[in-house]
Automatic annotation (TrEMBL), chains A, B:
It comes from the Bacteria. SUPFAM superfamilies: Creatinase/aminopeptidase, Creatinase/prolidase N-terminal domain. Residues 159-393 form the Peptidase M24 domain. Residues 14-151 form the Creatinase N-terminal domain. This is M24 family metallopeptidase. CDD domains: APP_MetAP (cd01066). It comes from Paenibacillus glycinis.
Amino acid sequence: MEIGTIASEEVSARIGRLQARMLEAGIDAFLVTQHVDLYYFTGSMQAGYAFVPAAGEPVFYVRRSLERARRESAIAVTALTSLRGFRAQLASDHPAVFGGGSGTVSAVNIATEMDVLPATTYARLAEAVSGGVAGTALTDGSSLVRGMRTIKSPWEVGRIEAAAQVVAEALEASLPVLKEGVSELELMARLEYEMRIRGHIGLMRTRSYNMEIMTGMLGSGAAAAVPSAFDGPAGGLGLGPAAPQSTSRRTIRRDEPILIDIGCCIDGYVIDQTRTAVIGSLANDLADAYAHSERIVRHAERLMRPGTACDAIYAASLKDAAHAGLADHFMGFGSDQVKFLGHGIGLEVDEWPVLARGFGNPLEPGMVLAVEPKFTFPGRGVVGIENSYLITDDGCRALTKSPEGLIVL
Amino acid sequence: MEIGTIASEEVSARIGRLQARMLEAGIDAFLVTQHVDLYYFTGSMQAGYAFVPAAGEPVFYVRRSLERARRESAIAVTALTSLRGFRAQLASDHPAVFGGGSGTVSAVNIATEMDVLPATTYARLAEAVSGGVAGTALTDGSSLVRGMRTIKSPWEVGRIEAAAQVVAEALEASLPVLKEGVSELELMARLEYEMRIRGHIGLMRTRSYNMEIMTGMLGSGAAAAVPSAFDGPAGGLGLGPAAPQSTSRRTIRRDEPILIDIGCCIDGYVIDQTRTAVIGSLANDLADAYAHSERIVRHAERLMRPGTACDAIYAASLKDAAHAGLADHFMGFGSDQVKFLGHGIGLEVDEWPVLARGFGNPLEPGMVLAVEPKFTFPGRGVVGIENSYLITDDGCRALTKSPEGLIVL
């Protein structure tokens, strides 16, 4: 079986869970449109739409490549002839949803991923699935999919661990490049090369509009502490106004913190980790802040188990930071602070759940989270650590493979 | 001035052109939301919305980073306090659009980029700008923006040429790696490294839903000819079902075509070029097909001048391919053929115009196009060439820097 091929039992289980959630939510069918969700529910990312009725067999309607979809997909594949004929095709394949050929159709509620589907594509699809027949609504089911994707199967956890192994090896292989006078970009290019030859697909997929992450963020000294549009604790200076985050052309110097917040995507699954390095030594307050970031991770590890509310872990980290006298520096500085400690990872890097205020939902076994306490010192740099964890039946297990501790060169 | 900083006169000219088009189209204001369009109309990609009235001063409403937006933006910057208060903020800043404080508001037509804006974000924004007041519509203005972005300024052409230079240097620096037994992925990783250290931001931005291009496609022999979801003449085998296009782990062999279709993004602007290489020699029919691809490019060069209809150039290439007896192999094979010869490039890789049937619009000075005739031989490989061109006042000028001709190693 090809690497990255999802076993058909795995797909069946996912479809079953989706159907159970749809019945609960009063949804008659799900129209899957996003390439990542298509991979999740069919095993294939070919271009088309997967139609999953609340009961009965799902079908992947494929525009191209049909040949490749047939080889990859764990659900039935058929050619999508035209968007104009899509309603008729659906009604004929799924009579239970559309009321059969009787012509009498009651209200049909079809859900889709309105959080990522562009507005005009949504409008076009809504028209196509209704086929001009009143009573068919295309509604938002994105929270349903994002919710069920929080729980990873053992196979998915294995993919995330494979990605963690690649990042660990790439970091180790690249550290010899990290010398005084090398630029952030040179070091990042080497890290990316080492991840790429090990199978990184080239970017970490994100769900959020306008968000781009190829391999994370590498920032040194003051450049790491520059605020940015990026909704994270350290955006970075970037390569200019057209790439205003992550790595810059700045030269790395002695005795300043170097934040290496990187990840990769292997077989579709991402890992996200941060280590802090220094050539020489850190000033005492920065070294202390780094030590505090490890303490916050230790505290989070003790709290992370099924039943703990996500916001309780965030609240604990705020308290820890305040206790250390570092409240103003925690997760960004001043008005640029971000309001979370960690986030789900999986097929995308901005998955649920989020360790943040307002997320009162409890952790569940199978969730995978990146926990990333960081402290920002404007003009001086960012220090911190980030590990990813699987929530187990009675606690959590680290998936990150790189050794902890400040990297001193 | 920092690299990638757009001169304020350049931004003013763009705003002026947008306003002229809005007046023509009966649009009262444009709400710019996409990061690429924000960069185009403000010079900054910070998170927020730019509001451009059909007459009067535009304002960039910024969520984060405000400090950075103030430094980067060529238009006025103000803090976006909350989406709930956005209507009141807009009405106060732009009384000419919203009917002043009189309370009597006539119909207001605000356009936005509905081709990329996710459906739920669109709905939230539509509610925010209407503020519950009847008569305010948020409509699709994406074709207006895509249309005006087809015409590049001399500064933009300079950015694209800088990207072309990087690709040419990276290709030259990487060819020593191309030996029998090396994998596609190893060669691609090296090409990407060479582009990255020269300033490639790490991906080539695309406008289409579900489309991902980091650095293009490198495919050898049969792997290049595998059909894919990608709407291009050669998708490639990829790394597995979760990355089912471009580079694979396949080992490159003697006497087979190696398609190197790569690009990069420098200061926000992309270049796109293809060269074909071989270790040893190509079979006669493949070598002939490659020669035909260069002939099609020569023919396109003669046709490309202001006034020529885009579809006429595509039609000419179809005729050339048929005349060579290669109609079935042109731009993909059989049912997987794509129906275009070239496409606009600029801030995104899938820009307008498209050299395809149905695109009867004439070329205009300032347009930049990638022209990519390719021939696919299932089980054997893909051969072809791709150059990018600027349409000048009386013809066209190649922006691609790499020498032409089959690369024989």
